[in-house]
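Let us work through a complete example step by step.
Step 1: write down the sequence.
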Amino acid sequence: PRSVHARGGLGHMGLGYGGALGAKMAVGQRKVVHITGDGSFHMNLNGVSTAVSYNIPVISVILNNNVLGMVRQWQTTFYEERYSSTTLDRKTDYVKVAEGFGARGFRAETPEEFRNAMEQARAHDGPAWIECLIDRDEKVLPFIPNGKTVDDILMD
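Step 2: predict the structure and record it as tokens.
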């Protein structure tokens, strides 16, 4: 009970990391796992210095598809794959960036690598990131179209 905070498919680029840090401060010893896309996490990098400075042990799982995934999904679903400003081709090495800030960084390309990274991240007493490389056309689901309600939610 009261252990999941989610936007329910409405999207919230840039909100997740700060929210996860606040949640961790509220729940004390309970583990907090922040699941985010690489585009959103780029918007939150300034929060990493806070997490490291105060040793706030939030685990961030970064789903890296090298695009602004939610925006690309809108353009795929509603704009007949007419893509604009969603493919960023960033060369960010999240493991190195994490280490540069003083956090722990891991990369996972397979489920087994993810399990190992999560185990190590859970054992670490401080902020940790797990970069998961995914296909650029993976969808964020559930998904609520603009101007619609939860009754109109898209599940695939």
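Step 3: interpret the result. The longest strand covers residues 58-64.
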